[in-house]
């Protein structure tokens, strides 16, 4: 497929990404006699060696990519390399952005290199085979390159801004010193925007700003995390804010940059390590296309070529997804997205928090005790009426009272420590009862399987008995046939010997 055909085939955004690639004239090309054509593309330099990519043509086959390393000062010192070996080196841009070791990653890596050979007019066509599939893969490679370039530019601007903040001003006594540019402010799109709140954005917390820089441009009205505010209000309405204390603080669960999935959010959440391999486990959020488009949470293990498959129940997976989305919301990565796509998320999130508290038992955070009814007599404002006498006999605990709480009703707060103790004991007892119930269910299931195994053993014994009987019959039949054959051979030998003796006498 030629250069012009590729440009016409790809989408508009892909053509923009294609134009943002470094020009082929800016790449390093060196003569290489073993190649056809005799020129090689420098992918990078490692320890005094060039990492080269070149084309070779076998008899009766189209050109294919090959790789080698060659010493910079001695062209005779060279060694062939495999593509997976090349992808492990520190390469130059834009090749370094597509070096994930996977089958698709290898295709992306080779397509980017072939593109430069095509742009330099060293080959007439590329993408042999399934052109549509390879062009889509090339499109994905372009998005990864664009994401990597934008990430590096953001890091450079951040370092420059940090240096400017630490460097004292060189001009003194200036009535209106120019404010240094900060990389943490939102970037504007081509259409005009109101920048009256630029100063306020420059004073944003640096910790959140570093993450906001990696997000797409947004309007100033989107800076407020509306989903977080609505969730807090929902929990406060049901007096369930204390349930958040059972979760790990967001500061202790770090987000890291990710470029493995260009279509996903640029941050991944670190969940922990694999119990056996100790590989890092991450969660990321990406949009799911279809009739009902929404953002989904996926999990993967670092270093694996496939997504993580879970063997847990669907309800547990749903609760885990709800909690992970909460951390994306708190970090400001998913703002005004989750609640817009899932109206029932606040109620489901509260149910997940209640489930966690129930499983934690006595270790879970308890609801704060409302001590407002416990007022001292001096704090009661006189209203000219005498309070009713307080009954010394508390109402039965099993009967709910229909009388509203008054500032002098102390029955609910007379023994707060005992009430808390009973609640903790009840929770622990319920947890133990649940464990005992699960143990009973498992024991019953094991007993059922033991019965099935016994039946299976009986069937096996019957089968073996029948099999052994058939084997004995077959062996006996064979012995009989073998005996008949021996008799025939003896008879043949005896008669042939007698015939030979008679023939000699004649």
TrEMBL record:
Coiled-coil stretches: 432-491
Biased composition range(s): Basic and acidic residues: 148-166, 176-210
Annotated spans, Disordered: 148-225, 367-425
Source taxon at top rank: Eukaryota
Keywords: Coiled coil
Residue ranges with Polar residues bias: 405-421
Record-given protein name: Uncharacterized protein
Organism, scientific name: Cucurbitaria berberidis CBS 394.84
């Amino acid at each position: 497929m030629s250069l012009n055909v590729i440009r016409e085939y790809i989408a508009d955004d892909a053509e923009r990404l294609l134009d943002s690639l470094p020009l082929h004239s800016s790449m390093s090309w060196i003569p290489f006699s073993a190649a056809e054509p005799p020129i090689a593309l420098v992918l990078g330099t490692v320890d005094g060696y060039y990492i080269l990519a070149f084309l070779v043509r076998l008899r009766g086959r189209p050109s294919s990519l090959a790789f080698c390393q060659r010493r910079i000062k001695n062209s005779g010192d060279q060694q062939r390399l495999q593509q997976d070996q090349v992808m492990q080196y520190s390469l130059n841009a834009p090749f370094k952005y597509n070096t994930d070791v996977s089958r698709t990653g290898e295709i992306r890596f080779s397509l980017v290199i072939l593109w430069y050979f095509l742009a330099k007019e060293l080959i007439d066509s590329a993408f042999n085979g399934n052109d549509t599939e390879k062009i889509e893969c090339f499109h994905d490679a372009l998005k990864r390159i664009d994401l990597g370039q934008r990430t590096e530019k953001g890091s450079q601007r951040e370092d420059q801004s940090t240096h400017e903040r630490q460097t004292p001003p060189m001009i003194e006594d200036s009535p209106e010193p120019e404010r240094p540019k900060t990389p943490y402010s939102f970037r504007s799109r081509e259409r005009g925007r109101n920048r009256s709140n630029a100063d306020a954005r420059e004073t944003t917390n640096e910790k959140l700003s570093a993450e906001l820089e990696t997000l797409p441009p947004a309007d100033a009205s989107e800076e407020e995390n509306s989903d977080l505010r609505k969730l807090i209000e929902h929990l406060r309405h049901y007096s369930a804010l204390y349930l958040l204390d059972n979760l790990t603080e967001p500061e202790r669960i770090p987000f890291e940059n990710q470029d493995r999935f260009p279509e996903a959010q640029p941050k991944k959440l670190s969940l922990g390590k694999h119990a056996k391999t100790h590989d890092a486990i991450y969660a990321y959020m990406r949009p799911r296309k279809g009739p009902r488009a929404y953002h989904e949470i996926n999990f993967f293990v670092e270093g694996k070529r496939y997504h993580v498959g879970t063997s847990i129940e669907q309800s547990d997976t749903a609760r885990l997804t709800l909690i992970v989305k909460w951390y994306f919301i708190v970090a400001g990565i998913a703002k005004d997205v989750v609640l817009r796509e899932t109206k029932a998320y606040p109620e489901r999130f509260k149910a997940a928090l209640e489930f966690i508290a129930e499983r934690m038992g006595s270790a879970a955070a308890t609801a704060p005790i409302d001590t407002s009814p416990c007022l001292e007599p001096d704090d009661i404002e006189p209203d000219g009426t005498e309070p009713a006498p307080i009954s010394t006999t508390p109402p039965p605990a099993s009967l709910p009272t229909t009388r509203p709480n008054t500032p002098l009703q102390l029955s609910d707060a007379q023994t707060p420590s005992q009430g808390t103790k009973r609640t903790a004991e009840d929770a622990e007892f319920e947890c133990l009862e649940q464990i005992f119930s699960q143990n009973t269910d498992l024991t019953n299931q094991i007993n059922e399987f033991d019965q099935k195994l016994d039946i299976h053993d009986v069937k096996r014994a019957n089968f073996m008995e029948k099999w052994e009987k058939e084997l004995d019959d077959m062996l006996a039949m064979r012995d009989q046939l073998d005996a008949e054959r021996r008799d025939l051979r003896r008879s043949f030998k005896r008669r042939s010997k007698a015939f030979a003796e008679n023939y000699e006498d004649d």
